[in-house]
Amino acid sequence: MSYIIKKKKRKALTLNCKYDIVKRLQRHAKQSEICSEMGLSKSTVATIWKNKETILKTFESGQHSNVKKIKKPNNYEVDQRLLKWFSQQRNNNAIVSGAILQLKAEDFASKVSGNQEPKFNRSWIERFKRRHNITSGRIAGESTSVDMNIVDDWLQNKWPIIRSNFKDEDIFNGDETGLFFKLTPDRTLKFKGQTCEGGKLSKERITIFVVANLTGSEKRKLLVIGKSKNPRCFKNIVQLPVTYKSNKRAWMNSEIFINALREWDEELRRKKRKIILLVDNCPAHPDVKNLMWITLVFMPPNTSSKLQPMDQGVIHSLKSHYRRLLLSEMISCMDSDDNAIIASVSSASDTYDDDEEDEDAAYENNEIISVPTTTEALRYVSSIRQFLQSRNTPQNVLDGIAHVELHINEIHFITIKQTKISDFFLSNS
Predict the structure, then answer these.
(1) Considering the chain, what is the average pLDDT of its residues?
(2) What is the DSSP secondary-structure string of 36-101?
C-alpha cells in the first residue's frame, strides 16, 4: 500500500511580519509560542532570527513593509544614489515629481555605467517609490517661508510676558477663513460605463471670522461676511445664529473689524472682564485704539502659519462639520421622493398579478389607459432601479433594468422634438 505524503503549503511572510517576530524574540519571547501562534515551523523562525540584522536594517531604511522577499533591485547602485539624493532634496523642501526622479535616475545611471542613453521607464520609478514608501502630496501652506528664529524668540521671550496676567479662559484667538458655501463634491460613484456629467461647480464665497478661547470653553458667534446686504434667503428670518456683515468682495476689512471689536468691548465692560485677543498682522486688522477690556496682540509678520492657533485644526474642523451638514441637506433633497418611490414600487408589486384583469376591465368599460411619456418612463425605471439596488438584488436583474433604461433612452432621442431658441426664452420669460 502506498501513502501520499501531503506537502505543507509554504507560507510567505511580509517584511512587517518578520520585523515583528524579530522584535518579539529580542524581548525574549519563546520560539515555540511564536510557531504555534502564527502556524510556522521552528526552522522558519530560526532563519528569521538568523537574518535579523538584514531584516532590521531593511525595515528601518524605509523599505515597503508588505514585501515578502528582500532582494536587491535592478540597478542597485542607481537606486541607492537616487534614494540619498531624494532624501537630501526633501530635507531642503524641494519639489520632486516622478518625472524629475526619472531624469535623475538616468543621470546617475550614465555616471555609473558610462552609457550615455540609459532608460528608466515609469514602472521602474513606481517600483522605486513602493520600495522606499514614497508617496505624493499636495503642496500647501506657507510654513517654509517662516523665520523660525523669530517664532522661537516670540514664544520664549515675549508671549510669556504678554499672557502672564491672564487666565487661559481669557486668552482668545481670531482668524478669517473663506468658505465656498455651495460647493458640492466634484467626484461621484457611478455604474461602469456611465458618463459623469454635471454643471459648473459653485464659486460663491463668504468670509468667516472665527474666535475662541484657549481652553475651547467659549466660542464667539461666527462673524459671516457676504456680498449681498439683504440676501434673499434671509427673508422671514427673525434671528440669525451668526453675525452677518456685507461688502462688495465679501472680505474682512478694517471697518468691520473695528466695529466688531468695539461691540465686544462693550459686552466685556458690562461683565467687568478683561481678555487678550491674538490676531495675525494683516491690513484688515488695524490697531484699534481706546479698547478698555480687550488687549489686542498681533503676531509677528509672516509667522501665522506657525503661530496661528486657529490654523492648527480648528478651522478645518469647522469646515468639516459644515460640509457634513451640506451633504446631509443634499441627501434630504435626494430623499424627498423616497416615499413616492417606495409607494409606486409597493403598489406595482401588490397589483402585479391583477394587471391583466384590470386591463381587460378597462377595455370592457371603454376606459382610456394613459400611456406615460418617455421622460416619465425613464423616471419610473430609475426609481425601480434605485429600489432594487437598496434590496441587494442580483446583478443579472439590475443588468436587465439597465437594458430597459437604455432602450427607453433610445426611444426618447428618436421621438424628441427640436426646440427653437426663441421658444426657450419665451417659455422662461
Answers:
(1) 78
(2) HHHT--HHHHHHHHHTHHHHHHHHHTT--TT-S---PPTTHHHHHHHHHHHHHHHHTT----HHHH
Does the pLDDT of residue 370 top 80, yes or no? Answer: no
**Lookup: cell for 24:** 518579539
Nearest to 294 by CA among 311, 273, 310: 273
Residue 87 has pLDDT above 90, yes or no: no
CA angle 237, 239, 243 (to 5 degrees): 115
Question: Are 273 and 293 within 8 A, CB to CB?
Answer: yes
Among left, alpha and beta (phi > 0; psi -120 to 50; other), residue 232 is alpha
Alpha-carbon gap, residue 100 to 134, rounded angstroms: 14
What is the DSSP secondary structure assignment for residue 181, as one 8-state letter?
Answer: T
- C-beta separation of 82 from 103 below 8 A: no
Query: Which DSSP helix (H) or strand (E) runs through 225?
Result: strand 223-226
Determine the residue type at 109.
Answer: A
Of 194, 198, 176, the closest CA to residue 186 belongs to 198
Residue 285 has pLDDT above 50, yes or no: yes
Please give the C-alpha separations between residue 274 and each of 171, 270, 296, in angstroms, as whole numbers.
Answer: 9, 11, 11
Q: Pull the grid cell for residue 96.
A: 520632486
In which region does residue 424 sit, left (phi positive, over 0), alpha (psi from -120 to 50) or beta (all else)? alpha
Pairing assessment for the beta strands 206-213 and 223-226 based on DSSP bridges: antiparallel
- For residues 372-395, one letter each, b for 16 or more C-beta atoms within 10 angstroms of the residue's C-beta and e for the rest, the string is eebeebbebbebbbebbeeeeeee
| Distance (Å, whole) CA 53 – CA 59 | 10
For 98, other C-beta atoms within 10 Å of its C-beta total 14
If you search the block for the grid coordinates 432594487, which residue do you land on? 388
Query: Which H/E stretch holds residue 138?
Result: none
Q: What pLDDT, in 10s, does the model give residues 254-276?
A: 999 999 999 999 999 999 999 99
Tell which residue, 208, 149, 153, has the closest CA to residue 178: 208
Nearest CA to 166 out of 294, 331, 47, 267 is that of 294
Nearest alpha carbon to residue 385 among 356, 409, 411: 409
Tell me, what's the pLDDT at 70?
59
Which range, 99-103, 198-202, 246-250, 372-376, is most confident?
A: 246-250
Most confident range (mean pLDDT) of 19-23, 50-54, 179-183, 197-201 is: 179-183
> Cell digits for 85?
539624493
